[in-house]
Design brief:
- With about 250 residues, the chain is an alpha/beta fold.
- It has a single domain, classed as Aldolase class I (TIM Barrel), CATH 3.20.20.70.
- The chain has eleven helices and eight strands.
- Strands 7-6-5-4-3-2-1-8 form an eight-stranded parallel β-sheet.
- α1 runs parallel beside α2, α5 packs parallel to α7 and α7 crosses α8.
- The longest helix is centred in the C-terminal third of the chain and has 19 residues.
Length: about 250
């Protein structure tokens, strides 16, 4: 049975000192949660958060990583740098990386393959824009992003991959896909994974929902058959909003 996986993507928020204080309190208050918990601070906050969460059950992830060992890539961060401070999970393909920084499916796939080679766990984000949904291209877009994003992976690699479905029109807008709409997209993504790797791999793949998840809608979303957790943005920045999401199945 798939375990619910609740992840907080802090995006470009919190200073290192703020992040460390938040992480210490989170570790205490999430200690008895029945779900898998992860937070993804900014690069500069990672060392402080890793230290604050030592010995806790909360996973620390990076929000991005480069697809090269090292070298003349100004402003980039490598897998080895992350590993050295104790980070072994990374979010890739987030809609903001696609939209604002021009990351293509092929580039995201290169990073997925490289991070897996370096021993990382991956959260691969996929999702459609409002215009793509309204023009009836939902399955075309999701199918392409999943197939290209997972190109070159083995069935064994998929044990280290979580997929996060994030309808772009619902991120930071206060809008949320209805539970039925979200379930439909998740079921389709699972069918694409099944077509590539087989039904056993698909049934074991965790697929999170991301898009204005909050305490008021998380239980209904998590009750859907193919929704296995949440990639939470704004609501992961305060404990009074994030903790009820983490404890959604208590």
């Amino acid at each position: 049975m798939r375990q619910l996986y609740i992840a907080g993507n802090w995006k470009m928020n919190k200073t290192p000192s703020e992040a460390a204080l938040f992480a210490k309190e989170l570790a205490e208050k999430a200690a008895d949660a029945k779900v898998k918990v992860m937070v993804a601070p900014t690069f500069v906050c990672l060392p402080a958060v890793v230290e604050a969460l030592k010995g806790s059950r909360v996973i620390v992830a990076a929000q991005n990583v480069n697809d090269h060992e090292g070298g003349a890539y100004t402003g980039e961060v490598s897998c080895d740098m992350l590993s050295d401070i104790g980070v072994k999970t990374v979010i890739l393909g987030h809609s903001e990386r696609r939209q604002y920084y021009g990351e293509t499916d092929e580039f995201i796939n290169a990073k997925v393959l490289f991070a897996l080679k370096k021993g990382f766990d991956i959260v691969l984000c996929v999702g459609e824009t409002l215009s793509e949904r309204e023009s009836g291209r939902l399955r075309e877009v999701l199918g392409r992003q999943v197939k290209v994003g997972l190109s070159g992976l083995s069935a064994e690699d998929m044990a280290h991959v979580t997929i996060a479905y994030e309808p772009v029109w619902a991120i930071g807008t206060g809008k949320t896909a209805t539970p039925a709409d979200a379930e439909d997209a998740h079921a389709f993504i699972r069918s694409v994974v099944a077509g590539i790797f087989g039904s056993d791999v698909a049934e074991n793949t965790i697929i999170q929902y991301g898009g204005s998840v909050k305490s008021g809608n998380v239980r209904e979303l998590m009750a859907q058959k193919d929704i296995d957790g949440a990639l939470v943005g704004g609501a992961s920045l305060t404990l009074d909003q994030f903790l009820p999401i983490i404890h959604c199945v208590d």
